[in-house]
Design a protein that fits this description.
- There is one protein chain.
- With about 180 residues, the protein is an alpha+beta fold.
- Helix 1 runs antiparallel to helix 2 and helix 1 crosses helix 4.
- The radius of gyration is 19 Å and the shape is globular.
- The mean pLDDT is about 85.
């Protein structure tokens, strides 16, 4: 079994939601760890990789590729061999950057609040449509994919290149990123 690492470099603001509201500060807050640092859950990253791998397999029109995606990421439902062969860790700041941010007390400076409102067909803002969302500044996060066979490396590497956006409001310009997979 093998372990490889991945990096996610964000080129603009991004938002992975916590499901919580910030009261008067923002309608939607970013997911943070116990140190108030942003992270992305491994299951979210795995879902993005799976979707990209399924797209690749569909484009190649090869039954073998579809079968490889099912074997790597698991099948839906329950069966004896439905489990995934891949484990994705959470994506986090590097330990060096995290320690420096925490020691300088800069964790709150990683976030901004942006506002948006609904505009009607006449170009006028609709009443009671103002929304505020906490976003994270551009950063690079790191994680690992563990316990997999070497034959899945190419699938993961190609899938990573297909992921261009991550998080909420991807269709509105948030979350532009680049994911790279590399051997440790």
């Amino acid at each position: 079994m093998k372990t490889i690492k991945f990096s996610i470099q964000f080129y603009g603001y991004w938002h992975i939601g916590s499901g919580l509201s910030g009261g008067t500060k923002a309608d939607s807050l970013v997911l943070k760890d116990h140190n108030k640092l942003p992270y992305i859950p491994g299951k979210t990253i795995k879902g993005l990789f799976r979707h990209a791998a399924e797209e690749l397999a569909a484009l190649s029109e090869s039954y073998l590729d579809q079968d490889m995606v099912q074997k790597a990421f698991g099948t839906f439902g329950y069966s004896e061999d439905s489990g995934s062969k891949l484990f994705f860790s959470d994506a986090q700041l590097s330990s060096i950057h995290a320690k420096e941010i925490l020691s300088l007390g800069l964790s709150e400076s990683l976030y901004e609040v942006i506002s948006s409102t609904k505009i009607d067909e006449l170009g006028v803002a609709e009443d009671k449509s103002l929304r505020q969302m906490e976003v994270t500044i551009p950063l690079t996060l790191y994680g690992a994919i563990t316990d997999f066979e070497s034959k899945y490396y190419e699938l993961l590497s190609k899938s990573a290149t297909m992921i261009k956006y991550l998080g909420l409001n991807r269709n509105r310009g948030l979350g532009r990123c680049e994911i790279k997979v590399f051997e440790s």
